Amino acid sequence: MAAYIIRRLLLMIPTIFGILLVSFAVVQFAPGGPIERIIAQLQGTEVAATARIGGTGGGDFAQQMTGGGDGALDSKYRGAQGLDPAFLRALEVQFGFDKPAHERFFLMVWNYARFDFGTSYFRDTSVLSLIAEKLPVSISLGLWTTLITYLISIPLGIRKAIRDGSRFDTWTSGAIIVGYAVPGFLFAVFLIVLFAGGSYFSIFPLRGLTSDNWESLSLAGKVLDYLWHIILPVTAMTIGAFATTTLLTKNSFLDEIRKQYVMTARAKGLSENRVLYGHVFRNAMLIVVAGFPGAFVGAFFAGSLLIETIFSLDGLGLLSYESIVNRDYPVVFATLYIFGLIGLVVALISDLTYTWIDPRIDFETREV
After folding, report:
1. Burial, 328: exposed, middle or buried (Cβ in 10 Å; 0-12, 13-18, 19+)?
2. Model confidence over 244-268: pLDDT tens digits?
């Protein structure tokens, strides 16, 4: 097992490298960029993104921009007419675009290998600090969504398999399919209208993960306040997540129940619980465990953008979206790198969980 773990850890290196390479190449051909965005803002739309420039000599830049004689009529940047070429060259140096693409890519890889993600283009703060600031919201949504989904879906799927074809199975399948068909953000709006002071009840808060007086609360008060804020967004995210895991668990159990070894165990006089949970469970759960990495990592992103927006939660989903729109490449690549790495580690943990559920599985004898 140790050799298998080492091989998997070593294979993470080319995998992460490939993810960064493809993403970097796509960005090079995508229209627009941080310099084009700043140019558009300096032309009169807004000036918020130039705050960082202003802190590093932005006054001189502004004078060059407004006092340039001939302007950058031959500039490679769209909309740069009338701007001093020195101003554009200074922007290129500031963002690192004065270097060729391959040099920028390998410099990024070297820095990321040391977990040095640089500074956000437009927020004037380190990317790592920015991600750490938003991470508690995404961790709360992701962990609670995954935990509640599995705690409900697995027992429900087993119950549906045992009572396959019964009225219970039919009604629960209908309810699960309806919940899966309703988009999470639509259900979130319904919860707000019903329980967060929309038109009926005002039971739960509408904004944030904690109250304004959270620091002054006792430990028990902090826990209750946190749970009070997280109930509605987590409910909105999990309502549609039951279908896949529940039906997967049910079908996996049904497939195992019909196998010969189950009939043999029953013929030997074993109790039904012993048959189901001593023999069927560990075999049927393998396929459910296989889907855990995707469910765990996906819970951080799937639907989180809309849920975070609706409930005013400033998490990684909203941060990633804003960074892509604003062409804040250090934040975009850093989040991609971190969560790609997390996904690979969780996938390895999932394989190790296989051996815990079924010790007969031996990864040492198979190719990675």
Report:
1. buried
2. 788 888 888 888 888 888 888 888 8
